[in-house]
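Continuing the batch. This is chain 6 of the set; chains 1 through 5 are on the previous pages. Same settings as before, nothing changed between runs. Recording input and output for traceability.
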Amino acid sequence: MGQGEESIPDAEWEKFLREAEAGTQGAPKEPSARARMVTRRLQEESARPEPWRGHQPPRRRKGKVWYVVGLLVAAALVVVALAPGRVAGWFTGGGDASVPLAAETRRPTQPPSAEGASLAPTVARPFRGSPAVRWADGAAGINLPEARATGWMSKAEVTRALEKSRDFLAASNLDPGVLRGERPGNAIAAVNPHQSDVQKYLTTAFREPSEEDDPLRLFSRFDTANVRLVGDVVKTRGRITYREGARGAVEVSADVTYVYPVVRAEAGSDEVVRTIVRREVVMSWDDPAKIVIEPGTFSLVSYKTDTTNGGCGPFTGYLTPKFGAERASERGEGPGVDPYDRSTSMEKRMRKAGDAGCGWATRS
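Output for chain 6:
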């Protein structure tokens, strides 16, 4: 209805409609739009009528809103792509609850970012400032490959060999009792008892540890008289691979880095340091028809170890991390090493160190 036009009462329109339906002379043949509207309203009297003159707020136009939302989402995706670590920090206050890294299925091409390295660890957040904050806990960080029939073993047997290999690593480097300095009985039981040279090493290493017979070559142990672990989580990252070895054996190789946060043993100690150990262990699951071996055990082929802040002095059979000024002043003669860099093979790292003595860590 145009501005200034008079409003016609409903009663008159209803009267008009009834006359039109009765065929009153002069009535229009087809009701107007307004008449049709009134007809519809009368037919729906049983339902609650909506006031056709009443005000209804106009519908919000959604096009512009979705356009703006789309721009915001696109901008957010760009930020995540360019600085994922920083975005995670917005929600975690330093990254302790960041999204975990995907499992390591192959050797990385570069070291992890040093972002946040200036953040000091605390008893509440012992991995703060470390790439390990996004690593998995315990054995979950040791990735197993897909099994397939290899050598003398079926697919199912290879699966069991891979799982038992990981169990050995856990018993050697993650078992709470072993970390407190106890003898790693379960781990030792997994090694072929007929492998005389290895059995001699295992016997001597715990009785008279030395440079030649050092239990730390295979096992992680701390002297609880000096240090204690912070919490019950050890961060790990690594992978297991396998191939057919000599005489049809299934040769399993493990390359794993373990991160142990510790404090001094004294009650109330709150200075947290980290000991980082990277190990490469090669195990041969031999065919009993060709090698003298007990079922369910493997033969050790080789083992390499690289340790950061684990001690560089007398061979006590324990990892001996340093704290405070003592740690700051201790810098070995060897090259600087990033203990979180898994892009370099153990062989290359050991060759770089050579006979230069104890090295030093570029970060902890």
